[in-house]
Amino acid sequence: MVVTLTPVPGFPMVRPGDDLAALLIAACEQSGLAPADGDVVVVAQKIVSKAEGRYVDLAQVRPSARAESLARQVDKDPRLVEVILGESQRVVRHRPGVLIVEHRLGFVMANAGVDRSNVDPDVGAEPVLLLPRDPDVSAARLHDLLSAHFRSKPAVIITDSWGRAWRRGTVGVALGAAGLPALRDLRGRSDLFGHELRVTETGFADEIASAASLIMGQADEAQPVVLVRGLSWPDAPTPGATLVRRPDEDLFR
Amino acid sequence: MVVTLTPVPGFPMVRPGDDLAALLIAACEQSGLAPADGDVVVVAQKIVSKAEGRYVDLAQVRPSARAESLARQVDKDPRLVEVILGESQRVVRHRPGVLIVEHRLGFVMANAGVDRSNVDPDVGAEPVLLLPRDPDVSAARLHDLLSAHFRSKPAVIITDSWGRAWRRGTVGVALGAAGLPALRDLRGRSDLFGHELRVTETGFADEIASAASLIMGQADEAQPVVLVRGLSWPDAPTPGATLVRRPDEDLFR
Questions:
Q1: CA distances (Å), B44 to each of A119, B47, B156, B180, in order?
Q2: N or C: chain B end with fewer CB closer than 10 Å?
Q3: Which chain B residues touch A164 with a CB distance below 8 Å?
Q4: What pLDDT shows up at residue B123?
Q5: What is the pLDDT of residues A166-225, one digit of tens each?
Q6: Helix (H, G, I), strand (E, B), or coil: what is residue A42?
Q7: pTM, full prediction
């Protein structure tokens, strides 16, 4: 089994209200990359958020007393902290320069994914971009529309790049998924010598997200869409939300 | 840029004292996959540990009082806990069924990587396998020997699969690396609109490890060696140890 990771070139700037599925279909067709059964279309979170118009203009934000206080402790703009808190269930850890929260969808991550970089200044005086409203819903919608158009069932993953506990450097993660098992269950399979495997679940969609992140780039050569070919999976699809560890099973929040 | 992930087939069972570089060279040549400049040879930790003879026979282990006590709390074999503690600097978290430690090399991980699965019963009555003595040294040695043989400079990554805080499922991580920047520094690069990027470092070797893990498999179809082709990097090489966050910079141990 050889797996290929191919950037889908020529993707345009995405603006609020754009039909992202139509843009994806056009980019795939222009580059001769029609997604087939078993292919995975990996889409950077930012273009999903932009199409969904998930902008907030900091110039319009009035920070609460709580945001003002936390902003002093983390050395960030209090209006940005107000937006982050609005996207969060709670603060997990903070220190100067660092604000780790539990996002409203359960993701434990820096700044609730609220981002200033690569945000088109035309959409507001001081725009920031939030995560998609529900990345699993966005992925399922793209999966349905791509499937209908290409008469195949390509899986879809919406990805972001996150820092991690204990390890330096960001890696790609799956915020949302459709058409594949985000988490693969290996329970019951045996190892080379017939012992039952003790590592029983793999973060399949997260590993695909990290693979795609290798060629998405982070800066001026950004490639927001990557086609992954050659994988296979016997298990039934599960959404990206299955990758979020429940708080009562988590030892680190 | 298209990236390919290709399993190197026909890898034999590895035994203590085997010359792993020679086995790698033979497997590459038999499958017509001569590693070239810019290629990355990804090697599963287990075959490195096996070649290095990193076995302990639990039948020979006498647990300390500390191991006995901790074993009751985590519901594990006290002899196994003794071996885990011997590979660890300290216990980070534990509860029934779970023992997260700081490995002597700084890795925060379950069970210090001590593993019972896929361990050849011929090497002892109740063998377990430890991580390689120093995965960066092992990677550098393979890098040197492959480079000399193939007259090219393929990078080498030694990988494992780890669980994570906050997310379910294991993902591939780089224990050791040679010939590429384990951590890529994007500081000073600007985004699409000319702002300086705020995400400044990516876990490059970890993302490659996760990508390779997609086809390494975990069980009977295990593929312990994967060739990654098509990546490029401008930065100078750094070892896998650069991915370990220093304790004083870490908010979660």
A1: 40, 6, 11, 17
A2: N
A3: 164-165, 203
A4: 80
A5: 999 999 999 999 999 999 987 666 555 555 555 579 999 999 999 999 999 754 557 999
A6: strand
A7: 0.95
* Inter-chain residue contact A3 with B4, CB threshold 8 Å: yes
- Give residue limits of the domains in chain A: 4-53+132-244, 55-129
Q: Which of B63-72, B110-119, B130-139, B199-208 has the least mean pLDDT?
A: B110-119
Q: Indicate the fold that domain B4-48+133-245 takes in CATH.
A: 60s Ribosomal Protein L30; Chain: A; (3.30.1330)
Multiple choice CATH, B55-129, 2.40.128.110, 3.10.20.320, 3.90.1660.10, 3.40.50.280:
3.90.1660.10
Q: Residue A179 in contact with residue B121, Cβ under 8 Å?
A: no
Q: Which DSSP symbol is given to A215? A: H
- In terms of CATH architecture, what is A4-53+132-244? 2-Layer Sandwich (3.30)
Nearest CA to B168 out of A126, A110, A240 is that of A240
Instruction: Give the pLDDT confidence of A108-162 residue by residue, as tens digits.
Output: 999 999 998 767 777 888 999 999 999 999 999 999 999 999 999 999 999 999 9
Tokens of B177: 């690396």
Percent of chain B with pLDDT over 90: 81
Residues 6+ apart with CB under 8 A from B6: A2, B33, B226, B227, B228, B229
Amino acid A187: pLDDT? 67
Distance in angstroms (rounded) separating the CA atoms of residues A142 and A147: 8
Neighbours of B119 (CB within 10 A): 21
| Euclidean distance between CA atoms B14 and B22, whole angstroms | 11
Tell me which chain B residue has its CA closest to the CA of residue A106.
Answer: B166
CA distance A9 to chain B (A): 10
Q: Which H or E run contains A57? A: strand A55-57
- Write down the mean pLDDT value for chain B: 92
Question: Cα–Cα distance between B43 and B198 in angstroms, integer?
Answer: 32
Nearest Cβ partner for B243 among A167, A195, A252: A167
Q: Which residue among A165, A199, A245 sits closest to B161, beta carbon to beta carbon?
A: A199
Q: Å from B225 to nearest chain A CA?
A: 13
Count contacts between A and B (CB, < 8 Å). Answer: 236
Select from A93, A116, A203 the Cβ nearest to the Cβ of B251: A93
CB contact under 8 A, A117 and B197: yes
Determine the Cα–Cα distance for residues B194 and B172; give it in Å rounded to an integer.
33
